[in-house]
Design brief:
mainly beta, eight-stranded parallel sheet, six-stranded parallel sheet, 36% strand
């Protein structure tokens, strides 16, 4: 019985990878009328990703290096997706333009699991660059998550609430917005881990924020446990 179960799991994993596709986004020269399935037929806007109905588990969405998506929010439509880059040059930028989040998995949008972000720069998110809510198994690898514009101590470049197994590796979490004392005496945070279990920060640079790391204690009165299992190493 045990061998049969393991074989079934391995079979499903292999089939998932075989069925996975890759899609391309080129903010400069793409078109949302394209298929997105090749470099020459890349999409242009993040809204195309958000509304796409046919992603399979383990699909990859790649942003072209050297491009900048301005004033757009990435709202992954399902779980088990990889977001990375292609081409040469500077990391592609998702720029919230100080008006909206760069990645939004908030209670007002949707929560997804098993997402991987690699080699992307997120800037000028408002009030947060990346917001995660009740998400599990999120990996942020070799990214820049900088310059959120909320101007409040509850806001952060990365906020993770009521989730688990968050990994941030080989990334920068820098230069949160510093509000003036007359507006808000606290400014923004680097990363706010709020009742997220088993968070790993490793090989990161976290600097220049009002507080680089803030730990939320959860909602114990309503039976939700404290934040537990934070590891910070080689940072």
């Amino acid at each position: 019985m045990k061998k049969t179960y393991l074989f079934l799991v391995m079979f499903l994993l292999i089939m998932g990878k075989l069925n996975a596709n890759r899609y391309y986004v080129d903010a400069d020269n793409g078109s949302d009328g394209n298929s997105g399935t090749s470099i020459g037929s890349a999409w242009k806007h993040i809204s195309k990703i958000n509304s796409y109905q046919y992603f399979n588990d383990n699909d990859t969405i790649s942003f072209k290096c050297g491009t900048r998506s301005v004033g757009q929010t990435l709202i992954p439509p399902n779980s088990y997706l990889v977001f990375n880059s292609y081409g040469t040059g500077a990391r592609p930028v998702i720029d919230g333009n100080s008006t909206q989040r760069c990645v939004d998995l908030s209670p007002y949008q949707t929560s997804q699991d098993f997402l991987n972000f690699k080699g992307i720069k997120f800037v000028n998110g408002n009030p947060r660059c990346i917001e995660l809510w009740k998400c599990t198994n999120i990996t942020i690898d070799s990214c820049n998550i900088d310059s959120s514009k909320g101007g409040n101590y509850k806001y952060a470049n990365i906020y993770s609430g009521y989730g688990s197994n968050l990994k941030v590796r080989y990334s920068t979490i820098n230069y949160g917005y510093q509000a003036s004392l007359t507006v808000d005496p606290y400014g923004n945070l680097g990363i706010y881990v709020d009742q997220t279990q088993n968070t790993l920060l490793e090989h990161d640079t976290i600097i220049g924020n009002r507080s680089n790391i803030r730990i939320g204690y959860g909602d114990v009165e309503n039976g939700i446990d404290y934040t537990r299992g934070l590891i910070v190493r080689y940072c």
